[in-house]
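Hello Y.,

Per our agreement to keep a running log of every chain we model this quarter, I'm adding this entry. I've kept the format consistent with earlier entries: sequence first, then predicted structure.
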Amino acid sequence: MTEDILQETFLKAFTALKDSHTNMRAWLYMVARNLCFNSMKREKKNVPADLGEAMESRQDAGQDVLEGILRDERKRMLWEAMYRLESRRREILILQYFGGFSQREIAAMLRLSPENVRVQVHRAKKELKTCLEVMHYDVS
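Predicted structure for the entry above:
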């Protein structure tokens, strides 16, 4: 499914993207995002509950096992906390911190004001901090 969406995104870019477009990266993201949403609606499947595990890389050979376990647990907790956020806030954080987009680019993609994006990032980080603190105490 991922490969199909990627292929369809670039096919749309070749056929519909104008040479004069100012932000190809943002345009590609929006097309891919919309195709993903359409695909999920068609298949009536939810986003995997633990996307973090799917995105984790394998441990390097010879790495300290305990260090690897702790790192993986921190990643798992982060992704679990991310999925407790409201979907718009989660998407904004993913775009900014994992996608490398600026708040201005995110605002244009999601049709929000840059100020609204800034506020959403602030609130999402505050919620994440609270959630991670609660999760840390629940684990201890």
